[in-house]
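In response to reviewer comment 3 from the previous cycle, which asked for concrete evidence that the modeling workflow produces usable outputs, we include below a single protein chain processed end to end. The sequence was submitted unchanged, and the resulting structure tokens are shown without manual editing.
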Amino acid sequence: MPSSLSNNQRGIAAILGCMASYTVNDVLVKQILQTYPVGEVIFVRGLMCSLLIGAMALAFGHAAQLCAPMSRVLASRSLCDGLATVAFIAALAHMKLANVAAVLQIAPLIITVLSVALYREAVGWRRWCAIGAGFFGALLVVKPIPSEFSIWAVAAAGSALFSATREIQNRQIGKAVPVFVIAFWGSVARIDSASASASRRWPPAASEWARTRIVSPRRGSGSGASRITGAAGAAAGAAARPALSTSATIERHCIRSREAANVASATMAAPSSRNATSPTIDRD
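The workflow returned the following structure tokens.
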């Protein structure tokens, strides 16, 4: 980034890039939530972020900071990051993306209020009017009317609150901790939050990738779909083979029993038929 930019301009550029990335991420997460549960999405998302950000932290020489004990502010910031992610993705799974995004717009408003309360920053009447209008717009989406109330809108508002608290704590941490270290512990907190929020087993689709890789044949034996189908067919055949064998054995026993009954009936009927057909000898 050119050195002619001021710190505020650099911060604005970073925020714009961050929000663009978040928008793309939200669209992809909304699509994935149609197939996978909330806990699994948060877990895999946090795991991938932890690996990538951890690798970046090590590449920039922050291994000592990663191993150092966390301060209370960093631990609180990581906790807020995890809770904000859980609340956001849970709301995104049950609400329209536009409505969730509208509720999340109160996060900058909360940040402004907290900056005045904690850091005594000056805010003019125009900004206060904008804050009031923003909160009113969020209420239109949340709809705090009993007949139209949605708990997931409250979850989205909670995500905005946790996000604002997280950003305020970023200000408190300052430059004492490298950015990659802060982001790494936030990703780890998301994994912990996903484990705590998982209330049921993940569907079989979660381990489909591993199963298909384990049972797939050697390379060059056909396309991926045919290998998976062949493996599934082989597994189904192996599972059904004992049942088919048992059924065939029972059928053979039934046939043998019927044959033995027929032979016994024929044997018992033979003497009576001979007596009925033998000539009568007149001794006179």
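Confidence is low (pLDDT under 50) at residues 209-248, 276-284. We consider this sufficient to address the reviewer's concern, and the full set will be provided in the supplementary archive.
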